[in-house]
């Protein structure tokens, strides 16, 4: 089966907003065994949109339409679908009532009713992350899915509603012989080097993000794939490789929630990124008590009780300082788990002893001792801050889920000598 993707959004073509739709959908469709043959990003122009959508529908397969389902005058997605299908738009009272029940304020603005119009014969797909429902239907020999534009909403509607329908019509079920893995803090180049011995037995594709790489393995049987993953875990560390598409801070939230634990953070160089990453996860309030950004030495002393002599002797970026920051979290927050980070994000502030990219992280439990680590991270200021937050999040996850690993020399060696 093949697919085409069409994304509507003038803002995407102006450079004001980065498109992530094609990347996400291409990956997800591939995992469903669907070959993406074409992807277009178009302005909110109904004439051009109808022309290109009609052409894609003529090709058959599956067409995924992104955007244009909102309540504004430039949201033409429903009208385009109805026009290409040759059917009228029908106001669905059940869809409207479901929207108003969830969001009563929608009834105050008449234009919101646009979101309850559905091309005749199409299904309205629930959107648990927003208001505009998705759409699913058939036009001739082609299946068409329409998804809301905001990335979080798009992912929920696609994953919950569209993906199962594509599996059903493709007849491939949920297993197409491919496996996805997520790795954290392993450079893409190092991952490619580790995969080289498997060439001829497996095929793979990687998608790199700062601090994270998605890996898709295919072309071999289950035993071969498992053996390949085991070799990656041996070369790197098992605690850096996760099966499936995983978000580190979702994993952390779930691990804390399973154990009924709460966490607090003390951040310096990351400036609140760790707390921000965790609070993006739905339900974070179950596990996150709070955090503090202690950027200056004075803040570390006054808010966390870090001793002046520790700062004078070892400096703000030191294992000793982050250990006292962890202790300070426990003294000022009623939490079970704490993490602290301090580093030099650059571009200035480094020294021969502590170059730019030097980062120290401490993690601990209230009922146990803390552990500290030092790393030297590469990149510009943004990347160093991002990877520092990932490192702190990962070590907190390991503390909660795989605590024995914190005392293993392999982990300390990787962080101190191999992590970049």
UniProtKB/TrEMBL annotation:
Residues 4-168 form the MoaB/Mog domain. InterPro entries: CinA, CinA-like_C, CinA_C, Competence-induced_CinA, MoaB/Mog-like_dom_sf, MoaB/Mog_dom. SMART domains: MoCF_biosynth. Signal peptide: none annotated. Belongs to the CinA family. This is CinA-like protein. It comes from Winmispira thermophila (strain ATCC 49972 / DSM 6192 / RI 19.B1).
């Amino acid at each position: 089966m093949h697919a085409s993707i069409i994304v509507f959004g003038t803002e995407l073509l102006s450079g004001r907003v980065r498109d992530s739709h094609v990347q996400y959908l291409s990956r997800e469709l591939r995992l469903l065994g669907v070959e993406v043959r074409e992807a277009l990003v178009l302005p909110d122009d109904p004439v051009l949109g109808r022309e290109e959508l009609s052409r894609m529908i003529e090709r058959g397969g599956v067409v995924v339409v992104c955007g244009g389902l909102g309540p504004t005058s430039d949201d033409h997605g429903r009208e385009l679908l109805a026009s290409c299908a040759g059917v009228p738009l029908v106001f669905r009272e059940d869809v409207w009532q479901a929207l108003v029940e969830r969001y009563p304020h929608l009834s105050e603005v008449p234009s919101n009713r646009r979101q309850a119009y559905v091309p005749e014969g199409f299904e309205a797909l629930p959107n648990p992350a927003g208001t505009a429902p998705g759409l699913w239907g058939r036009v001739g020999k082609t299946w068409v899915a329409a998804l809301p534009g905001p990335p979080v909403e798009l992912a929920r509607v696609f994953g919950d509603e569209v993906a199962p329908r594509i599996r059903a019509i493709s007849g491939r079920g949920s297993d197409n012989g491919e496996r996805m893995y997520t790795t954290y803090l392993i450079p893409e180049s190092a991952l490619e080097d580790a995969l080289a011995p498997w060439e001829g037995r497996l095929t793979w594709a990687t998608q790199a993000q700062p601090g994270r790489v998605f890996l898709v393995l295919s072309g071999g049987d289950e035993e071969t794939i498992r053996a390949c993953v085991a070799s990656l875990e041996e070369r790197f560390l098992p605690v850096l490789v996760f099966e499936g598409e995983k978000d580190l801070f979702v994993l952390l939230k779930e691990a804390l929630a399973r154990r009924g634990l709460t966490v607090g953070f003390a951040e310096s160089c990351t400036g609140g990124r760790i707390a921000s990453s965790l609070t993006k996860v739905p339900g974070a309030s179950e596990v996150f008590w709070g955090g503090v950004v202690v950027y200056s030495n004075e803040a570390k002393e006054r808010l966390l009780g870090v001793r002046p002599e520790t700062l004078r002797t070892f400096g703000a970026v030191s294992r000793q300082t982050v250990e006292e920051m962890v202790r300070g979290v426990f003294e000022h927050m009623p939490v079970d788990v704490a993490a602290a980070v301090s580093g030099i994000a650059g571009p200035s502030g480094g020294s021969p002893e502590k170059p730019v990219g030097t980062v120290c992280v401490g993690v601990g439990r209230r009922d146990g001792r803390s552990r500290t680590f030092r790393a030297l991270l590469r990149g510009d200021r943004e990347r160093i801050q991002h990877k520092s937050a990932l490192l702190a999040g990962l070590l907190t996850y390991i503390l909660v889920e795989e605590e024995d690993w914190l005392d293993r020399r392999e982990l300390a060696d990787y962080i101190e000598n191999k992590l970049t």
